[in-house]
């Protein structure tokens, strides 16, 4: 199975152009940028995060900012009113409880409002250089569809992927499979006719078995 996964990743690396939009290095910027990326496209995240951090750069500045100005700056990201309140609330909590620092554990980050496991994993990977596989809807769905895992929840999928995917491939796995899911292996109507890993995919076999069982 591991050889198959390595082949799939190698093919996708050549075929899928990845926009490395996340700000790297600064944990606070990575945290807020990933928060803004929820339920929107990468280009919208990029516009919103650039505008926001051109005006406010630190948790203190963000905590003291007028929420309406934050809304205006991050409007391209969508759901901007909810996200603006989260940005300000998270910044205030970091100042009040953690001296302005982003926690360095998944558990610590997931105590912050609006921060789930996937976002926390992104911060661990892109800010702290820790090895995780952030598992969103695409990363949960596609490995199950193509037959490299058989799991029910994102947490189960993350655990299984970390077991079978070579450690040096963990960081790129999320972004490759997100782009693959957005462009080709879509939730409804996957574009199998142009899929670069079709010969390694078990999806058609699953469809055939389902058809024969009816």
Task: Characterise the protein shown here.
By secondary structure, the chain is mainly alpha-helical. The chain has two domains: 2-17 and 134-213, Endonuclease Iii, domain 2, CATH 1.10.1670.10; 27-126, Hypothetical protein, domain 2 (Endonuclease III, domain 1), CATH 1.10.340.30. The protein has helices spanning 2-15, 27-36, 42-55, 59-64, 67-74, 80-98, 106-110, 117-126, 137-146, 154-164, 170-183, 203-213. It is elongated and about 60 Å long. The two termini are 30 Å apart.
Write the layout of secondary structure elements.
Layout: H1 2-15, H2 27-36, H3 42-55, H4 59-64, H5 67-74, H6 80-98, H7 106-110, H8 117-126, H9 137-146, H10 154-164, H11 170-183, H12 203-213
Helix pairs in contact: 2-3, 2-8, 5-6, 9-11
């Amino acid at each position: 199975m591991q050889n198959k996964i390595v082949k799939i990743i190698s093919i996708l690396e050549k075929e899928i152009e990845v926009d490395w939009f996340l700000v790297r290095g600064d944990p606070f910027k990575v945290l807020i940028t990933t928060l803004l990326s929820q339920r929107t496209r990468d280009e919208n995240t990029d516009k919103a995060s650039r505008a926001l951090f051109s005006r406010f750069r630190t948790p203190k500045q963000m905590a003291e900012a007028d929420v309406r100005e934050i809304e205006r700056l991050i409007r391209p990201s969508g759901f901007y009113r909810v996200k603006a309140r989260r940005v300000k609330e998270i910044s205030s909590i970091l100042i009040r409880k953690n001296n302005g620092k982003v926690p360095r554990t998944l558990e610590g980050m997931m105590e912050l409002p609006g921060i789930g496991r996937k976002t926390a994993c992104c911060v661990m990977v892109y800010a702290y250089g820790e090895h995780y596989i952030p598992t969103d809807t695409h990363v949960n769905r596609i490995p199950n569809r193509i037959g490299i895992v058989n799991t029910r929840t994102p947490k189960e999928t993350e655990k299984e992927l970390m077991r079978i995917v070579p450690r040096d491939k963990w960081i790129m796995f999320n972004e490759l499979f997100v782009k693959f899911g957005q462009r080709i292996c879509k939730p409804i109507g996957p574009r199998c006719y142009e899929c670069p890993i079709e010969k390694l995919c078990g999806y058609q076999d699953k469809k055939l078995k389902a058809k024969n069982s009816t």
